[in-house]
Design brief:
Blueprint (H helix, E strand, L loop, with lengths): L2 H14 L9 H10 L1 H8 L29 H23 L13 H8 L7 E3 L5 H6 L4 H9 L8 H4 L10 H16 L5 E6 L6 H13 L3 E7 L2 E2 L2 E2 L8 H7 L4 E5 L3 H22 L6 E6 L17 H4 L1
Parallel strand pairs: 1-2, 2-3, 3-7, 6-7
Antiparallel strand pairs: 4-5
Length: about 325
Amino acid sequence: MGGAGCASALGDHLQQRGHCPVFADSSSAHRYWTDVPSGEWLMSAPRCAPVPNDSPTSAVSSSTRSSIRTIPTLGSLYEDLVVVRRIDAEATALQRQGELGLWAPLLGQEAAQVGSARALRPDGFVFASYREHGVAYCRDVDPTHMLRFWRGSTHSGWNPFEYNMTTPAIIVGAQALHATGYAMGMQFDGSDGAAITYFGDGATSQGDVSEAFVFAAIFCAPVVFFCQNNQWAISEPVSLQSPVSIAARGRGFGVPAVRVDGNDVLAVLTVTRAALERAQHDLRVVLQGASQAGVEGLAQRKGGRGGRGGHQWLPSRVSR
């Protein structure tokens, strides 16, 4: 099946599941939101007012090639999920053998990472936590570079500007501020791109994430906040982090947000693409304004927080 045929097949699959095709223009993505009550507010939320931009560089002059997304097929998405899980399993084994100092497992979060990563344009910049190995794989980071970081045999792991993705952030939640600041810089440079940052549900209780929400909302930064709500912060359940959904907390800061099934790679792909469209859309049209969006991917972590931690505290039905 050719690329167009695969795209059509995936689009038909999405329509059967109640999603719109993710390969059409932004208007199709907007239809997805209007079909979902929780997503309707995201797309209908007030846009940010234009901000002054005196940059002599055209907003789209340098992004023609880098703004083209590769259309994923069902087969390629499945391959990503399988390979990412295999990388995680091998690295977890290496850590338990003492070959790696630490490894944050992603078992149970493959779909959230692959789906969101495949929605990104090449020029999108990723600000990761320490668990986004699947995102790194989708950004073409060599797995050996990931292992070197956790083995302590390199000072960084990889060149962030080569893959448009930062190396793991160890300080919980700090990357949300970095992403917001970078997005504001993109805005002032006249770029039509967007940044995305990943963090867990536990990180939403950190002050850095709250500050990032405030700056993004006030300054209309083109950034997407992707919370991988795996329902556990070390050994503390999300019910002790927030009495409402993580998405609802984002809305409290003025950041439009929606919750999605983090185990559905197609749903995550669709929602992330729509969120990126929102973050980029105003900038492409007005050339001076932008807006932010948030996504909460609901998943279930099936392993410990780090390679050294077990999962004895997990319910038996989950840890099996």
